[in-house]
Amino acid sequence: MKKNILMLGILLILGGFVYYLVNNDNDDVAKTIDDYDFSYRDFAIKNIDDIAKIVVVNRTKGVFTFKKHNDTWFVNDSFVANKMSVNNMLSVFQRVKIDYVPTEAAQKNAMKGMMLNGIKVEIYDKNGNALKKYFVGDSPQNSIGTYFVMDGYSKPLVMTLPGFKGNLRVRFSYSLNEWRDRTVIDETPENIEIIEIKYYIDKDASFVLERKKDKFEIHPAFEDEKKIAKPLDQKFANSYLVSFTKKIAEGIIADKEFKENILNQQLLAELIIERKNGTKKSLKIFMSPSFDKESLPDNKGIYKYFNNKVHRYFAQDDKGDVYQIQYVVFDDVLIPYQSFFKK
Asked: Three-state DSSP class for 109?
């Protein structure tokens, strides 16, 4: 009997407490409930394969929209995105963790910084639903960690990435040309039909290499040059086509004035790739403004200009983009006509 009375008393007390929570409009009660909302701390996305669209809003560098088509990311619907840069960003989305909760004074300063130069990041799934929206700020004064604040909240936290020391902001603060893929040439060797290279600095080294069924033929690129009367090294010609895979530039030139200066330099060579389906890829290679000081006057032919001492050149593709390229990357492409014959 006593147990029944005790149980009834407990039920009455609990019932009264629930009634109080549901019906009481007291601000203190609401504040207590809100304190249990930890969504402002939840920045990580467990499965990054769910991500189909990313928007990065940078006040100084622009708005960048990334969309995934099959396994390839594109930026602003126009350019293939730099794979490494996107992977670095996705790594933040998946692995970011709270380092510590800053003091109230530090939170106020962090929010002021967010108002001035915070980078907004929006992440969406395949159905267009927002997975996360937050702002990325600067590092604390000790330069360890990075301030993050969830959109709609005013409680910034210092976040970190396991195994990474530095400001995570750098992974979101690129310009368009830095977000873009820097691949200049990436051809499938089996799809190449013709390779033509004209060396304006050495016409004798210029050539046209053409696939004829299972064999290759080669002849001078300029009509006034003599054809070499030797058997073409078929194995060498076939292996040469492999040189046209994954040629990556050091950078993409954005400054218009500098780009104009480059295009006024001496044109060293022009490369044309024709594929089996009839499409073409062209590339013009220019010397750099300091090229004359770096060339090797004692070298003969194209190697006076294309050598390890020069290091860098500039290349313009058929879309008008200008890249800074390295000789060490393109040295197996920039070879003379004479290389295709057995000694």
From this structure: helix
Distance CA 236, CA 223 (A): 24
52-61, 201-210, 285-294 — which is least confidently predicted? 285-294
Give the domain-ending residue among 111, 145, 179.
179
- Mean per-residue pLDDT, 54-61: 96
171-213 pLDDT, tens digit per residue, is 999 999 999 999 999 999 999 999 999 999 999 999 999 999 8
Contact 159, 97 (CB under 8 A): yes
288 and 252 co-located in one domain: yes
Confidence (pLDDT) at 9: 45
Burial of 273 (0-12, 13-18, 19+ CB in 10 A): buried
242: amino acid identity, one letter: V
- Specify the number of domains making up the chain: 2
- Distance (Å, whole) CA 167 – CA 148: 11
At residue 19, the pLDDT reads: 36
**C-alpha–C-alpha distance, residues 305 and 302, integer Å:** 6
pLDDT value of residue 34: 42
Could you report how far apart the first and last alpha carbons of the chain are, in Å? 111
- Rounded CA-CA distance 309/38 in Å is 58
Which pairing describes strands 251-252 and 267-275: parallel, antiparallel, or unpaired? unpaired
| Burial letters 75-103, b for 16+ CB under 10 A, else e | beeebbbbeebbebbbbbbeebeeeeebe
Q: Which of 145, 179, 213 corresponds to the end of one domain?
A: 179
pTM listed for this prediction: 0.78
How large a percentage of the chain has pLDDT more than 70? 86
Structure tokens at 217: 């033929």
Of 274, 244, 263, 252, nearest to 335 by C-alpha is 244
Q: Which domain holds residue 79?
A: 40-179
